[in-house]
């Protein structure tokens, strides 16, 4: 039996097991299972299959209109050109996006760049890409940028700073697509204003949909723009859904690395939290697979990152929370999967390279030739999958609870997690298990003011600020001891 591996990897999903392993050998593929029980049976979050709670997606999928649009754009061929506005140009998303521009100079033009305070790197980018607008986070950084460019006798774009500068970049007339590589709630307003000007969004800012989904999704529909996921899991789902007809999606399966504690049992982790909190802190901020930012690494350890991705998947693809599942896949080769109504399971595979989803978000639906290392399944050797322990990772349950509550609750969840995550990393005495406790306390307190209808951006930002302050205050009562 021959196995064809191309853009997608297809497996039968009806009999997936609690723990299963794909082995790649010169003779082909073999599958071994650790149990015969369905690895999704009995998992409270997801897989209920009710079909209830589906919404209109913000990504261009699951409709006749999106199929026609995808075909129309595909027939343009690879001679297309897109003009980009890049928010967060000096961060990892920004620099990797510019690597894509370098690899495909005929396909992309950079019209605007915004960044934090790294004026030196921004100056290098301005010299190379000659944007019309360059914005820095502060007035001091903007003056430094002017000085560097002036000394170099270089092209001088319009130089701005602060929120006004970010808005100017996101709304520049000439840009077709805005890449939202900035972190936090600061990305909400620029994204909204870009949508109102009918610009496509290459989405790398999680808060846009996790916190702002109730506001963003109606705007996407009203202005008819394309919301294109730029992170690996949601890009994988997006790619798998290309060509799936309306009503064809049955279930979404998000893969997770499992984070720093994936090889410990719940009891082993909890004992380690009691006996050696300093070791827990060190391990929680070290990812077993790759080097990421400190916040995301800790979110991976608590698996809140996967819970947040569940919420984002709901808004992007419209699936009910009952029809979104999480599975731990330590090798991080299968980036996520979809199950269609006939129970076929379609997966997207590749090395863990952030540039791959970025390429697709800015070039969709085209497939550009890129100078990246091809996937070698023989080198991968094997792939394993297992269900997450929801007692070991309570943050997953909290994310599903917030998602099902809807409205402003997801903004509260996100803000509470960010604050608890930051305080744990600051070494002020919070334990690893205090993170989900603080988040749950904040969600419970928000129930009195929970809003599910007629939600505005001000509502989202207000709930974000309240949740952060609430976590800060409650954390004072939870500092049992300072880590030593």
From TrEMBL:
The keyword Oxidoreductase applies. Its cofactor is Mn(2+); Mg(2+). Residues 1-19 form the signal peptide. The keyword Manganese applies. It catalyses: 2-C-methyl-D-erythritol 4-phosphate + NADP(+) = 1-deoxy-D-xylulose 5-phosphate + NADPH + H(+). Residues 349-470 form the DXP reductoisomerase C-terminal domain. Its main location: plastid. GO terms for molecular function: 1-deoxy-D-xylulose-5-phosphate reductoisomerase activity; manganese ion binding; NADPH binding. Its EC number is 1.1.1.267. Pathway: Isoprenoid biosynthesis; isopentenyl diphosphate biosynthesis via DXP pathway; isopentenyl diphosphate from 1-deoxy-D-xylulose 5-phosphate: step 1/6. Belongs to the DXR family. This is 1-deoxy-D-xylulose 5-phosphate reductoisomerase, apicoplastic. It comes from Nitzschia inconspicua.
